[in-house]
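Students often ask why inverse folding is considered easier than folding. One informal answer: many sequences map to the same fold, so there is more than one right answer. In these notes we will look at a single instance of the problem. The structure comes first.
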């Protein structure tokens, strides 16, 4: 099954400010990835070829442009063939677009996992991460509401996943 999953959020901050947060991804002081989810861990940091993942999702860094984008090639779960990428783009002096894209083909049991659980959990995780970024620059805090299905999945799946 072809999967193209795109999330975008415009943050009213200069690109340099959002780049700092992107550069903190997968570090001890991660200012980007949502706190309620398993952290991204990379064996050798954000270097091309570094292996890691979060929860049951495993990948290898396939591209890294500091302050611009980081791309990961999936290695697990089985049946996931493709990548996901975080990137930022300057829209104006004080506006930056934050984007996350999954572009992959799923096969076999990977398709079932995506359709039943991973897609829903992924969407919630990314929106929580975008909330974390936005909330660092706003007095009015954003909190995306999880769907009933996501709340159910979070109750039945261990927190480490």
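Output (designed amino acids):
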């Amino acid at each position: 099954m072809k999967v193209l999953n795109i999330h975008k959020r415009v943050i009213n901050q200069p690109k340099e400010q959002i780049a700092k947060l992107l550069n903190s991804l997968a570090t001890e002081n991660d200012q980007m990835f949502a706190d309620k989810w398993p952290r991204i861990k990379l064996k050798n940091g954000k270097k091309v070829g570094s292996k890691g993942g979060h929860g049951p999702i495993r990948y290898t860094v396939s591209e890294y442009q500091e302050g611009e984008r980081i791309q990961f090639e999936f290695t697990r779960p089985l049946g996931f063939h493709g990548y996901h990428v975080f990137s930022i783009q300057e829209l104006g002096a004080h506006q930056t677009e934050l984007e996350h894209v999954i572009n992959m083909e799923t096969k076999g049991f990977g398709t079932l996992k995506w359709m039943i659980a991973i897609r829903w959990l992924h969407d919630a995780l990314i929106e929580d991460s975008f909330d974390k970024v936005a909330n660092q620059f706003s007095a009015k805090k954003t909190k995306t509401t999880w769907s009933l299905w996501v709340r159910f999945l979070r109750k039945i799946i261990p927190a480490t996943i």
